[in-house]
C-alpha cells in the first residue's frame, strides 16, 4: 500500500521540480523577478502541501504565508523568491527525513487510543465480547501499519502472519513477543462471533497488549 509518507514525499519532489522550472525575467536591468503565472501556480500548491503536512501553526506555514504577504503588484523579486524557496526547501527536508511518517504514526496512535478507550468502556460495562472486537481490530490494524512502515508486506496477510514477520525481524521481542502469540486466537474468536470462546480476561489481555504496543511504537 502507498503510505501517507510516500505520497507526500512524492508530492514535495514534484513541487521542487516545478519550483526549479520557474523562469526569472530581467527587471529594469538591476534585478530579476519570477514569472507571475508560473510562480503563483506553484506557490498555491506548495502552500497547500505545507499546510496539509505541518498545519497552520507551524513555522513553515507561517513563514511561507508571511513572505507571500510581502509581494506587491505580483512582482516576485529574486530576494523574495529566494526567501520563499528557502522555506519550501526546509519543509521538504523534514518530509524527506520522515516527519510525515512520525505524524502518521502520531495520528494513528491517537485514533487507536480512542478505539482502545471504547474497548475499556465496553469491558467496564460487562460487554467483554464487544471489548474484544474493538481491541482486536485496533491491534490488527496497528500491527499491519507498524509492519508496513518497516518494509513488511501486509496485504492479504493474517494477524498471525504479520506477528510472525515482526518477530522474525526482531521488531517485537521479550514479553511482547510471547504475548503476541496469543492474540490471534482471541482475534479470530471475536471476528467470527464465537462469543462462547471469549472471556473478560481475554478482553483485558488484548486491551493491555495493544495499549503497550501503541505506547512503544506510535
**What is the H level of CATH, i.e. the homologous superfamily of the largest domain?**
Nucleotidyltransferases  domain 2
Helix run count: 10
What strand order characterises the main sheet? 1-2
Radius of gyration, CA atoms, in whole angstroms: 24 Å
Task: Give the SSE string.
Answer: HEEHHHHHHHHH
- Main sheet attributes: strand count, strand direction, barrel closure: 2 strands, antiparallel
Query: Which structural class do you get from the secondary structure elements?
Result: mainly alpha
Shape: elongated
Per DSSP E runs of 2 or more residues, the count of β-strands stands at: 2
Keywords:
2 domains, elongated, 4% strand, 218 residues, two-stranded antiparallel sheet, mainly alpha, 2 strands
Explain what this protein looks like in three dimensions.
72% of the residues lie in helices and 4% in strands. It has 218 residues and is mainly alpha-helical. It has 2 domains: 4-96, no CATH class; 99-217, Four Helix Bundle (Hemerythrin (Met), subunit A), CATH 1.20.120. Strands 1-2 form a two-stranded antiparallel sheet. Strand 1 (24-27) and strand 2 form a beta hairpin.
Outline:
With 218 residues, the protein is mainly alpha-helical. It has helices at 4-20, 36-54, 59-69, 78-96, 99-124, 128-149, 159-168, 174-180, 183-191, 200-217, and strands at 24-27, 31-34. The longest helix has 26 residues, at 99-124.
Strand and helix layout:
Elements: H1 4-20, E1 24-27, E2 31-34, H2 36-54, H3 59-69, H4 78-96, H5 99-124, H6 128-149, H7 159-168, H8 174-180, H9 183-191, H10 200-217
Antiparallel strand pairs: 1-2
Helix pairs in contact: 1-2, 1-4, 1-5, 2-3, 3-4, 5-6, 5-10, 6-7, 6-9, 6-10
